[in-house]
Design goal:
The protein has 347 residues and is α+β, with helices and mostly antiparallel strands. It is built from 9 helices and 17 strands. It comes from Mongoliitalea lutea.
Length: 347
């Protein structure tokens, strides 16, 4: 009997599909000797739910699941049908996975206690950010944060488990549902992106070791609210225009953030006269993206301090957000600080 040694083919007939998300997670499991595989399983549960949500969003126009649900969430925002569907899918996946003791969701007024005494993790999630854009076929996303619980396993969950600053995250990520579906996440050891191959039903590593450009020429902000901005921000926008920067604003947080992460830029959702605390939620939007940004070499601020150092005081707390290339974030903070100091001196 002849035995032939396998030699990897270099032929272009069969291209390499690369490393799957599942294999990548297993390869990186040694980064967490304390986790014993639970965090890896949790990431797989999130990936599974995102595949289901991806399917639902892709068939929304055919299955009559687009449009408003007819209720409002705790934010006072009109829920879309897909908001409700995504919330159910992710909560169900996290419940069945068995690694999570509690979930904080944009779509629920209160903490969801999964009644899982052995769960070591708390997940904060925006199941479907930007879902109002689904009817006009604009990219939307899922944003998630993962924390280790503070109280002993087996004990009831407490406020201490839930109200943790962003610097306590053990993992964070987002899923972008667009022309292609991508899952991007970090566990504190860099940022990696995976693209979904529909025919195989797998996420494949497509963007290893993602790095945010140190500087950029894109600013993303809803200038329709310009008259409500503080003066320092108005001056920064004028600076961007003088520099001939490009204004790019999709109005879908994950999509705007993802573009600027790859190409260099700043995303701003500021405080306004109508919303002095900003609009984005700290626990399940700003913290997750700030963690990703910093792991990719970027920066995230509320305009005056690092997002990840903010101690949350309420479940659905809001915050202004300046996030993206570090030099652009620093420059925006510089304008805000200068105006604040000038105002203080005048008084």
């Amino acid at each position: 009997m002849k035995i032939k040694q396998y030699i990897p083919s270099t032929s272009s007939i069969a291209y390499s599909v690369g490393v799957t998300l599942d294999r990548f997670i297993k390869m990186k499991q040694d980064d967490f000797p304390y986790a014993s595989g639970e965090l890896s399983q949790l990431l797989r549960d999130i990936a599974l739910a995102s595949k289901i949500v991806n399917r639902e969003t892709n068939r929304a126009g055919l299955a009559n699941i687009g449009g408003a649900f007819g209720q409002t969430n705790v934010q006072g925002e009109e829920q879309q049908k897909l908001d409700v569907i995504a919330n159910i899918r992710f909560t169900r996946a996290l419940t069945k996975g068995g690694e999570v003791c509690a979930v904080v969701s944009e779509e629920d007024d209160e903490v969801i206690d999964l009644q899982n005494g052995s769960g070591k993790y708390v997940v904060a999630i925006d199941p479907l950010d930007g879902s109002s854009n689904i009817d006009v076929n604009i990219s939307i996303g899922t944003i998630f944060s993962i924390y280790r619980r503070k109280t002993p396993v087996g004990s009831p969950i407490t406020v201490e488990d839930i109200m943790q600053p962003g610097n306590q995250q053990v993992a964070a990520g987002y899923v972008l549902y667009g022309s292609s579906t991508m899952l991007v996440y970090t566990t504190g050891h860099g940022v990696n992106g995976f693209t979904y191959e529909q025919s195989l039903g797998e996420f494949f590593l497509s963007h290893p070791e993602m790095k945010a450009p140190d500087d950029g020429k894109i600013y993303s902000i809803n200038e329709g609210s310009y008259n409500q901005f503080e003066e320092g921000l108005k001056q920064y926008i004028s600076y961007c225009k003088d520099k001939n920067y490009s204004a790019r604003y999709i109005g879908s947080l994950v999509a705007d953030f993802h573009r600027n992460l790859l190409k260099g830029g700043i995303y701003i959702y500021p405080a306004t006269t109508k919303a002095p605390s900003g609009k984005l939620r700290l626990l399940y939007e700003a913290n997750a993206l700030a963690y990703i940004a910093e792991q990719a070499g970027g920066a995230a601020s509320n305009g005056h301090m690092r997002i990840l150092d903010i101690d949350p005081t309420s479940l659905h707390e809001r915050t202004p957000l300046y996030i993206g290339s570090p030099k652009m974030v620093a420059k925006a903070e510089e304008f805000l600080k200068a105006h604040k100091e000038a105002t203080a001196n005048c008084n």
